[in-house]
Amino acid sequence: MAAYDVMLGYCLPTQHLKKKIDHINTAIRNCDANKTLVALMKPEAQLPVVHPFAAAVYQTELFNLQQQNARYLAHDELSIAVEMLSAVVLLNQALGSKDILAIKNHLRNPSVGFNNVEDENFQRYADTLLSIKSEASSQGQDYLSWNDVQNCIDMVNMQVQEENDRIVAVSYINEAIDQGNPGKTLETLLLPTVKLHDVNPTNARHYQDVLHDAKVQKCKESHDESAVLWLDEIQKGINDANSNIEKAANLALGTSMINNCLEKHDSQPVLDILQSPKFGLRVVPECAETYYKNLLEAKNLKTKEDSSEGPWLKLIMKNRYDYYYNVETGESTFVPPEGFIPKTSWLTSEEIQTIVGQVTADYNREQLWFANENLILQLQALARGFLVRKSYEERKGFLQKQEPSVIKIQASWKGYKQRKSYTDRLRVLQGNVAAIVKVSCSMLSKVFSLWSFFQNEEIVKIQAFLRANKARDDYRTLIGAENPPLNVLRKFAYLLDQSDLDFQEELEVTRLREEVVTKIRSNQQLEKDLNLMDIKIGLLVKNRISLQDVVLHSKKLNKKSKNQVEEMVTGDKQGIKGLSKERRKQLEAYQHLFYLLQTNPMYLAKLIFQMPQNKSTKFMDTVIFTLYNYASNQREEYLLLKLFKTALEEEINSKVDQIQDIVTGNPTVIKMVVSFNRGARGQNSLRQLLAPVVKEIMDDKSLLINTSPVEVYKAWVNQLETQTGEASKLPYDVTTEQALEHPEVVNRLESSIQSLRTVTDKVLVSIFSSLSMMPYGMRYIAKVLKNSLHEKFPDATEDELLKIVGNLLYYRYMNPAIVAPDGFDIIDMTAGGQIHSDQRRNLGCVAKVLQHAASNKLFEGESAHLSSMNTYLSQTYQKFRNFFQIACDVPEPEEKFNIDEYSDMVTLSKPVIYISIEEIINTHSLLLEHQDAIAPEQNDLLNELLKGLGAVPDVESFLGEGAVDPNDPNKENTLSQLAKTEISLSLTSKYELQEGEDQDLKGLMIKTKRLVVDVIRTQPGDTLLEILEIPASAQQESEHLKVVEKRAILDSKTPEKMKHSQSMLEDGQLPIEQKKRKIQRNLRTLEQAGLVSSANKYQEIINEIAKDIRNQRRYRHHRKAELVKLQQTLSALQSKTAFYEDQVNYYNTYIKTCLDNLTRKNSRRSIKLDGKVEEKGSKKLKHTSLKYTAARLHEKGVILEIEDLQTNQFKNVMFDITPGEEMGDFEIKAKFLGVQMEKVELHFQDLLQMQYEGVAVMKMFDKAKVNVNLLIFLLNKKFYGK
Question: Cα-flanking dihedrals φ and ψ of residue 913, to 5°?
Answer without folding.
Answer: -120, 155
